[in-house]
Each structure stands twice: as structure tokens, then as C-alpha cells.
Specification:
The protein has eight helices and 14 strands. With about 280 residues, the chain is an alpha/beta fold. It has a domain of about 180 residues: 3-Layer(aba) Sandwich (Rossmann fold), CATH 3.40.50.150. The strands form four sheets. It has a seven-stranded mixed sheet with strand order 7-6-5-8-9-14-13, with helices on both faces. The protein is globular. The protein starts with a helix and ends with a strand. Bound molecules: zinc ion.
Length: about 280
């Protein structure tokens, strides 16, 4: 009896964060390998690990505003997480764009803002030039080696030092996104390119932002995520990038058709911004 009570107390006690993380990771691994076994097939292939499956794992938020405003790249959707290596749909899209549409070469200098782990692992493999990973909260990205703290609205880099900037799903978190866009442009070399994915909607009239919305609950209700400060209307997002001085190439859905077999989000366009020569 004493033993049972002791065991109960032990299980109820709060575990040290590292132990809890390891347990959570083990649970995710078991779930993923079960999913992998139940979804054998060759409909989708992962660009990172080359494994094929009939489906990839679903992921995403399911708040009502995401459905009501048809926010692309935020909602609960199928075929997001590779059950073998854990790559996300946005990381697969980013790699395809970098390799096939943006022309990244090993000697290029690359700034990766808010780095996605699998994509950054790949950049470490291929980039022999300067590669910098940064985030406003680097402690939140323990899987990314040598990550440094940077505020995207005032970067500590000189002018025209990077050939490419990768900054996916970051701008929707920043109240002064105009400053962030002009900083990205400043650090790019003339002709340099940035991949700048954001969640967006084509079902709203204009970008929705209201800086009096400050609580997590309000932001979830208005924007679909507790740390987002707006929902971009697609054309307005392009206009904002153009106002910052970029030439913007929007890869529309039909242009991305050939990449669907890599389990990219079938509703998501790609936004490639180029600093003029
Ligand atoms: Zn994979």
C-alpha cells in the first residue's frame, strides 16, 4: 500500500523539464512510427529524408477565425509533418524554392531568421559561405546550433552582406513589419532574394491589424494565434513588400503544382522578394 502511494506521488510530481521533454519526444516518436506503419504508400515523398507515404501527419491550429477567414498556412491540415524525419510542409516548400526557384549555391551568404530545424540542418550541409541563424528568442530554438539573438527591426549586420534571407512565418509577429522588411532589404546584396512566407487570407478586404488587441485570448480570436499581430490580406502583403522596395514574385498555386508530391500545402503560394540590382 505504501509502495503504491509512493508510486502515485512520484508520478504526480512535476518532472524536471528535460525529463518531461524526453518523455514527450518519445511519445511523439512512437506516434510517428505508428502513423508511418499505417500509411504506407508512395503518394508523397519527403525532400529531406526521401521516405514516401500515402499521407503525412496532420498538424495546425483549429481556431474558428482560421476557418472563417480562410487563413492559409495556419489551420489544421493534412500532410504536414513527415512521419520519418519530422520535416514540416513549410520547410519542404522552402527547400524546393531555394533549390529550384531561387538558385542558392554553396558559396552564398545566407541569413535564416526564425530558423526551421530541418531546413537549417540542410543549409548547414550545403552552405560553405556565411550562414547565420537568428531569432528574437533563440532560447526557444534549442535544436539550431550557433543561433544568435537578433531583432529583425534593427539587425546587427552591415549593409548588403547576404545573398539570401529566409524569413518564414515571422513578419506576422512584428508590429512594425515595415521596419523589418526594410532591414531585410538593407542586409541583402543588390539582386539578393528573400523567401518571406506568412499566413495570409484572400477572403478579407484588407489586412486586419489592431494594436489595441493585446491579450493572448484576443489575438487567438482575431488572428488565430496568440502571438500574431495581424492577418495579411494577400495583395496588401505584396504591396507592403513593394513599398519596402522589393520586386515581388508570387509563385501561385498552379506554378507549384509540380511540387505537390512533396506534400507542400496545396493552398499556399510562395512569396519571393528581390532587392533590385
Ligand atoms: Zn522526411
Amino acid at each position: 500500500m505504501i509502495l503504491v502511494q509512493g508510486l502515485k506521488a512520484f508520478l504526480a510530481a512535476e518532472l524536471p523539464p528535460r525529463v518531461q521533454d524526453a518523455i514527450d519526444q518519445r511519445r511523439r516518436d512512437i506516434k510517428a512510427s505508428r502513423f508511418s506503419a499505417q500509411n504506407q504508400g508512395d503518394t508523397y515523398v519527403c525532400v529531406y529524408c526521401d521516405h514516401s507515404h500515402a499521407r503525412f501527419m496532420p498538424s495546425g491550429m483549429s481556431y474558428p477565425v482560421i476557418r472563417e477567414k480562410q487563413i492559409v498556412a495556419g489551420g489544421l491540415r493534412d500532410n504536414v509533418v513527415c512521419p520519418v524525419c519530422g520535416s514540416m510542409d513549410r520547410e519542404r516548400l522552402a527547400r524546393l524554392m531555394l533549390d529550384e526557384r531561387m538558385g542558392v549555391l554553396p558559396q552564398h551568404h545566407v541569413l535564416h531568421v526564425g530558423p526551421e530545424p530541418k531546413l537549417h540542418e540542410y543549409l548547414i550541409e550545403i552552405i560553405t559561405g556565411r550562414l547565420v541563424a537568428c531569432d528574437l528568442f533563440p532560447e526557444d530554438r534549442p535544436g539550431v546550433p550557433n543561433i544568435i539573438k537578433q531583432d529583425l527591426t534593427k539587425l546587427d549586420f552591415g549593409d548588403e552582406v547576404f545573398d539570401f534571407v529566409i524569413c518564414n512565418h515571422v513578419l506576422e509577429h512584428i508590429p512594425t513589419d515595415d521596419l523589418a522588411m526594410s532591414e531585410i532589404k538593407r542586409v541583402l546584396k543588390p539582386g539578393g532574394k528573400a523567401l518571406l512566407q506568412v499566413p495570409y487570407s484572400e477572403a478579407i478586404e484588407t489586412t486586419e491589424e489592431d494594436f489595441s488587441v493585446i491579450t493572448n485570448a484576443e489575438r487567438i480570436a482575431r488572428y488565430g494565434q496568440s502571438d500574431h499581430v495581424r492577418i495579411y490580406e494577400k495583395q496588401d502583403y505584396v504591396r507592403r513588400l513593394e513599398s519596402a522596395g522589393f520586386q515581388v514574385d508570387v509563385m501561385e498555386l498552379d506554378a507549384l503544382e509540380d511540387y505537390r508530391r512533396f506534400a507542400i500545402n496545396p493552398e499556399e503560394c510562395a512569396f519571393i522578394a528581390q532587392k533590385p540590382q
